[in-house]
Design brief:
Elements (H helix, E strand, L loop, with lengths): L4 E7 L4 E7 L6 H12 L18 E4 L2 E4 L10 E5 L6 E3 L2 E2 L2 H10 L13 H10 L7 H5 L1 H5 L7 H14 L7 H5 L6 H5 L6 H15 L6 H13 L10 H5 L1 E3 L5 E5 L2 H5 L2 H14 L2 E4 L8 H5 L3 H18 L3 E4 L2 H15 L6 E4 H8 L8 E10 L3 H7 L3 H9 L1 E5 L15 H4 L1 H18 L3 E3 L3 H13 L9 H8 L2 H4 L1
One iron/sulfur cluster (SF4) binds next to helix 4 and helix 6.
Length: about 500
């Protein structure tokens, strides 16, 4: 193919069109579609209006991801596949039926605003401003993994966005369906594809959930139990006679770098061997690992389910642990803890929270330079990696785990079809809507089965639990460890001569 053309493959429910479009400077996908209609297929149906990322009508799937055609730049030599938006009925070719989703929006607005006077809160006004920038393109709906798993559970991110808008404006006249509000895993996939960069989980979903909690109409009972437990005991799961902190609080390893280990609830009470792997790494690589006994749950499950008042109490308790340890860096090996410490704590604690937080894979790659170490796995394994949503999208960390896995001799690393597709464990879905969490994890287990791997690794105990159960449901002979354990095994003396 010549470099001065763009090859466009249009796949619709009824036909497939392949076209070569002469490239022109500054060309976007919408120009290419118009060329195809004007020069090759005069009956090709698609929509557009503003050509300026304003009207939302030109959204399509571009190489499997939703995007605005008028906001998708092309380069000479590009080969691009275009399909109609997912999760919305197709009218013809690339034209979809928006009313399928927007009828939910119409039912929501405008609600009766009974107060004749209400002082405007500047913070609420700012959130409203962001939510109101929605152009109803439905890119978020096409990307939502909950809708992929089970249509109807969650009517879509843009509906949740509209609910948040109404919850801010309407006070207690606001009565959303609880299944809709809690059927979101806070995976940030909608935010990733939104052309207006609307923070749907943070500004919409958590806003609605917090409003329902303020009014005593939320969260779901299992969330409430987790919230009470976390505030009363400092842990979001029950004690079962084993605690990592009881055995390992104190200092391990020696070196110039002082690292505080924020364990998280599951490593403390359910997966102490994952914490032990980090202790072994500290001893092997030579850094000081401080494990303060006073640390408690980070509050992630509470923040995500709208129990902000309870989560804030935990943040202040953890502040004492950070001050006691006074580390150079805080390390987490749970994506949920890491995202909460990085994104929620600065908001809640302000300048009092002065520590750098790193996921264990960031620490290993950037501070400890582990990929320059002799890493050798005891034996040979084929491994795939699941991106936790709260690590890839909430922390921007996805290259580091792969760099580590590719550096270990004896590990054959293979990617699954959609490594960053949500497994269903987050946002209170695993505790509040277990069937949905199972359904979503089963999709990922299917991808793992296709690869024939020995190991499925990740850096999140919540994903780990959800995925391990899915792998077991399929009767697969696949181990599901935290990536920290793989590194600890590869650093053992056998590997270092
Ligand atoms: S929230 Fe963003 S992606 Fe979703 S419809 Fe609105 S503008 Fe489009
Ligand atoms: S955060 Fe994830 S699950 Fe929730 S609405 Fe957005 S895409 Fe769907
Ligand atoms: S044509 Fe209006 S958003 Fe693309």
């Amino acid at each position: 193919m010549s470099d001065d053309v763009v090859k466009v493959r249009i796949v619709t429910p009824d036909r497939e069109i392949e076209a070569e479009v002469p490239y022109q400077d500054g060309m976007v996908l919408l120009d290419a579609l118009r060329y195809v209609r004007e020069e090759i297929e005069p009956d090709l149906t698609f929509m557009y209006s503003c050509r300026n990322a304003q009207c939302g009508t030109c959204a399509v799937m571009v190489d499997g991801k939703p995007a605005l055609a008028c906001d998708t730049p092309l380069k000479p030599g590009d080969e691009i596949t275009v399909e109609p938006l997912k999760h919305v009925p197709v009218v013809e070719d690339l034209m979809v039926d928006w009313t399928y989703v927007t009828e939910h929006l119409r039912r929501l607005a405008p609600v009766a605003h009974l107060d004749w006077f209400r002082r405007r809160d500047p913070e609420e006004a700012e959130v409203l401003h962001e939510l109101r920038s929605c152009i109803e393109c439905l890119c978020c709906v096409a990307a939502c993994p909950v809708i992929s798993a089970r249509e109807g559970v969650n009517p879509g991110p843009t509906v949740l966005r509209k609910l948040a808008e109404e919850s801010i404006k309407a006070g207690d006249t606001f009565t959303p369906d609880r299944g809709t509000v809690y059927g979101c895993t806070c995976c940030h996939t909608c935010e990733e594809v939104c052309p207006k960069d609307i923070e749907i989980p943070g500004k919409a979903v958590e806003t609605v959930r917090a409003r329902l909690r303020e009014e005593g109409r939320g969260p779901l009972d299992p969330h409430d139990e987790v919230g009470k437990l976390a505030v009363e005991t400092g842990r979001s799961v029950t004690y079962e006679g084993e605690s990592f902190l009881e055995r390992y609080s104190g200092t391990h390893g020696e070196g110039d770098l002082r690292v505080m280990f924020f364990t998280g609830c599951l490593v403390d009470y359910r997966l102490p061997h994952v914490g032990e792997a980090l202790v072994r790494i500290a001893e092997e690589l030579g850094f000081e690992l401080v494990v303060p006994e006073s640390q408690v749950c980070c509050g992630s499950p509470l923040f995500r389910t709208g129990q902000r008042d309870r989560a804030e109490k935990l943040a202040f308790r953890n502040l004492e642990a950070f001050n006691e340890a006074d580390p150079d860096v805080v390390v987490t090996l749970c994506a949920g803890c890491g995202a909460t410490l990085k994104n929620d704590y600065p908001e809640v604690l302000g300048e009092r929270f002065e520590w750098e937080v790193m996921d264990v894979t960031e620490l290993l790659v950037h501070e400890l330079k582990v990929t320059e170490e002799p890493l050798e796995y005891p034996g040979e394994i084929k491994v795939t990696y699941h991106d936790p949503c709260h690590l890839k999208r909430a922390q921007g960390v996805w290259k580091e785990p792969r760099r580590i896995l590719k550096a270990v001799r004896g590990v054959e690393f293979v990617e699954m079809k959609e490594p960053d597709r949500c497994c269903g464990a987050g946002g209170g879905v695993r505790s509040g809507m277990r069937d949905l969490a199972r359904l979503m994890a089963d999709v990922k287990a299917g991808m793992v089965e296709e690869l024939g791997v020995d190991v499925l690794t990740t850096v999140c105990p919540f994903c780990e639990y959800n995925l391990r159960e899915a792998v077991d449901r399929r009767d697969l002979d696949v181990e599901v460890p935290n990536l920290t354990e793989i590194v600890a095994r590869a650093l053992q003396p056998h590997a270092r001569g």
